[in-house]
Amino acid sequence: MFRRVYLDNSATTPIDREVVDAMLPFLTEKFGNASSIHFFGQEARGAVDKARHQVAGIINSRPNEIVFTSGGTEANNLAIRGLVEANDKYGKHIITSAIEHSAVREVCQDLEKRGYDVTYLPVYEDGIVKIEDVEDAVREDTILISVMMANNEIGTIQPVAEIGKLIRKLREGGKKIWFHTDAVQAISKITVDVEEIGCDLLSVSAHKLYAPKGVGALYIRRGVRLHSQNIGGHQERERRGGTESVPHIVAFGKACELAKINLNVATEHLTNLRDKFENGVAETINDFEFNGNRENRLPHISNVSFRFIEGEGLLINLDLQGVAVSTGSACSSGSLEPSPVIRALGRNDELARGAIRFSFGKDNTEDEVEFVLKVLPKAIENLRRLSPIYLKQTV
Questions:
Q1: Cα-Cα-Cα-Cα dihedral sign, residues 144, 149, 152, 157
Q2: Of 35, 195, 303, 355, which sits 20 to 30 A from 241 (CA to CA)?
């Protein structure tokens, strides 16, 4: 039987069976609108409130600081647009990093067209923002700093707690400035604590932690003013209009509950798989580079640039052999340009185009890693034999 191995868990994860069981009743007999005041509506409202507590629990926030959204992209849009629109009298300068997800990067680029000024911080070879660069970039008119907690392509963890301390220091001096972090990849992989981070806004997404697509959340610290981006309803304390998708919210809550319980075991499992894979790559393949800091990173992501090949070609070759991987963010699929994240590390076009992301999940096994390590070297060698540059340097 043809074997398939899924190593693209950073793009999305399969829905956990317990999560499915939790949401099913709200797709059938418990179908009420959570805004209705009768029994059916209040039954749904109770389920939403429970989920709000569960999501708050995994990031150590108050339940009333959680606003449900349609996913991480909407959460990022609400955080950035909502914050600057509500507080633009304090300034129109935004600081972000050069390796943000497109759901942050493209929002900032759009705001530039509307008169805002954006500073894109470098990350250097290790893929990590330097806190000195953050501090140096702050201006009189800086209103928002948005730096992701962990990168979705290379897994590097950013110094978000240090940025939070910087923000508090600036506020003590009387400055009006806020801090947003995209924690979509970090949630369920490492501890995420909004009090330790000191952020004002934090984005999460359900489908990265074994829940359905189409639901996410934005943490909004008490007292932070935002302009709603969804007008037309009083839901979510008038911060996000629209009828709540109760089944998805229930699923999200359950997934957060499970992720919090299983965090340590999951982290150890993912780290073991990733390290086994990377050790195997180092033993069997030449002419490659691991991308990003190899210590301060998420446990489930390994990003590797292979010389003398195109990443897209390797992706297709592996897929034909049953192995699913990615050349970068799934949200950038179809782009012919090298990953801006890999380029931000200082990699040349060859290494940027030869980058592949292997991302592991809780259901992956060591046996699957061994299978991948058997087919990967052969796939790379076959592609390299088609490269005149590779053949020339091997003569």
A1: positive
A2: 195
Give me the half-sphere count of Cα atoms (radius 13 Å) on the Cβ side of residue 13. 27
Asked if residues 24 and 246 have their Cβ atoms less than 8 Å apart, the reply is no
DSSP string, 91-157: --EEEEETT--HHHHHHHHHHHHTT-EEEEE--TTTT---HHHHHHH--TTEEEEE--SB-TTT-BB
pTM score, two decimals?
Answer: 0.95
Kind and range of the H or E element at 41?
helix 39-59
**Residue 38 pLDDT class (50, 70, 90 cuts):** very high
Q: What is the three-class DSSP state of 354?
A: coil
Work out the pLDDT band at 23, boundaries 50, 70, 90: very high
66's enclosing H/E stretch is strand 66-69
Domains of the chain: 5-13+263-394 (3.90.1150.10), 17-258 (3.40.640.10)
In angstroms, what CA-CA distances link 168 with 86, 112, 135, 149? 20, 26, 12, 18
Which residue's entry shows tokens 């390797």? 314
Tens digits of residue pLDDT in 269-327: 999 999 999 999 999 999 999 999 999 999 999 999 999 999 999 999 999 999 999 99
Task: Tell me the C-alpha distance between 9 and 362, whole Å.
Answer: 9
Question: What strand order describes the sheet that includes 355-359?
Answer: 288-290, 301-306, 355-359
Residue with tokens 């210590």: 295
Q: What is the mean pLDDT of residues 161-173?
A: 97
Q: Quote the pLDDT of residue 388.
A: 73
Residues with catalytic function:
331
CA 116, CA 93: separation in Å to the nearest integer?
6
Burial class (CB within 10 angstroms; exposed 0-12, middle 13-18, buried 19+) of 290: middle
Give the residue, 134 or 394, on which the prediction is more confident.
134
